[in-house]
Amino acid sequence: MLYIFCPHCGSRSQNEFAYGGDATVKRPELNKEISDQEWNNFVYLRKSPRGKHLELWHHISGCRQWIKVERDTSTHEIFKTYKADELTE
Amino acid sequence: MQKYSVFSLIKNAFSDHQNWEVAWKDPTPKKEYDVIIIGGGGHGLATAYYLAKEHNITNVAIIEKGWIGGGNVGRNTTIIRSNYMHDDNALFSEFGMDLWRKMSQDLNYNVMFSPRGIINLAHSDAQMNAYSRRGNSMRLNGIDAVLLSREEVQKRIPMADFSDNVRFPIFGGLMQPSAGTARHDAVAWGYARQADSMGVDIIQNCEVTGFDVTNGKIIGVRTSRGDIKAKKVGLCVAGSTNILAEMLNMTLPIETHLLQACVSEPVKPLLDHVVTFGAGHFYCSQSDKGEMVMGGDLDGYNSYSQRGNLPTLQHVLTEGIAMFPFLSKLKMLRTWGGIMDMSMDGSPIIDKTHIDGLYLNCGWCYGGFKATPASGWTFAHTIAQDRVHELNAGYSLNRFNTGDLIDEKGLGTKTWIS
Question: Which of A50, B40, B122, B228 is the most buried (most CB within 10 A)?
């Protein structure tokens, strides 16, 4: 069981959360000419590192806020959590 | 190579079975190979075997970080099927079914292929319609498919929950009678033994630490047992694909996720088929030893840990008990996990790359085991001929760029819910 520290609610079990994937992918800017390659990079390409991974979680059975979690993908250690709009280190 | 037969068995009985040849050698890496396959799992071993057998390329090394067959080929639920709707998947998998049927003879190794049939249960009229569509697509591609009524399903799997007050009543199911299971370790060992006998070096305990690429061409691999030169290199490392891709400055449409499986204590034979729950994600078959072999959802977040987490297992087994209530009385014998290379459309990639001489085989999601022979066969062709075979032409790396996705389930890029 993972225990995730929600910046709004405190430490909760993973059962309250839904996973939202890689938090580092950036949607291309609006109203800008975008190449197919750039769309491809945004929609499909993922680094999926072994080690530190910044990811989105949705506290769906709690405060319903999206948060960012920095977690190790091989040990599941959670280093830090952020509010969705908070800048990450 | 010593042929396995009743005669060799009798002959070796006279020397108390002390003089059997080793099944494969433990060579030191040579300085140079024509082809290096990274990853000594099912796909890597099969690729080396078909390189030697079909293309006469025998100066080949398989480099494996751990031991052969210690990854996903030894961690799956051994299901073999070709019940796909899309042409690319259907034709590729059905080609593989042919190889499965001949495998024990071909490898002179009993892989215990057991075509016991797979039944996908349907729990609504809409699902029956969808299965009838999928079944028709399968039959158009020459794959056997039978739509079963509720009564027909009950005759085949009477232990499923057919009571009145059930949340997901069984409306019927789609069956592929030629699907089945095989002894997964034997597949790895059979391919290894034959590949070794044709001159392939199987190098275990050898971790890749980097690649030598000059002028856009691969010239060798750096490993924990020294640098090895190679004209061609094939990646066959499933869940570790992204780790190697990072060494090559490549970003792929792949995420690595953890999938668990488990077996119960052994019981007397009661389940003749592979059965999948249609209202969730759960599948079950009974091994020859009598254990119920079960699996279901991914753990649900990127993971390289090869070890599962309890909430997912609980969730999966809850579905299992909804389908087969008797499962609640069984004790769990073992659970384990493997790391899956989840692709963004749920279909694999077998292709060349932008680096000359570097070939990619990945994205098997959790359907890698059944694809072992067809994947090895087509990957060997792609490497030997430096061009894709028509069977794997659809499995291109570029399809994400061009929009030619093979989205069998139509789930989009959220790999963790597929």
Answer: B40
A57 part of a folded domain: yes
> Does the distance separating the beta carbons of A41 and B251 come in below 8 Å?
yes
CA distance B362 to chain A (A): 14
CB B323 within 8 A of CB B339: no
List the CATH number of the domain containing A64. Answer: 3.30.2270.10
Residue B413, chain A, CB below 8 Å: the answer is: yes
- Three-state secondary-structure class, residue B78: coil
Quote the pTM value: 0.96
Q: Which residues contact A33 (CB under 8 A, 6 or more apart)?
A: none
At B246, give phi and psi (nearest 5°).
Answer: -65, -40
B residues 276..305 contacting A (CB < 8 A): 300-305
Would residue A4 count as lying in a domain? yes
Q: What is the ipTM of this complex?
A: 0.96
Q: What is the mean pLDDT of residues B285-294?
A: 97
Q: Do A55 and B255 touch (CB under 8 A)?
A: no
Within 10 angstroms of residue B155's Cβ, the number of other Cβ atoms is 10
* Residue B306: predicted pLDDT: 87
Instruction: Answer whether residue B38 shows pLDDT above 80.
Output: yes
Token look-up 């709004």 returns A8
Q: Which residue of B has its CA nearest to A69?
A: B301
Select the residue of A37, A40, A73 nearest B304 (Cβ to Cβ).
Answer: A73
- Hunting for tokens 């190794």 — which residue is that? B109
Please check whether residue A70 lies inside any domain of the structure. yes
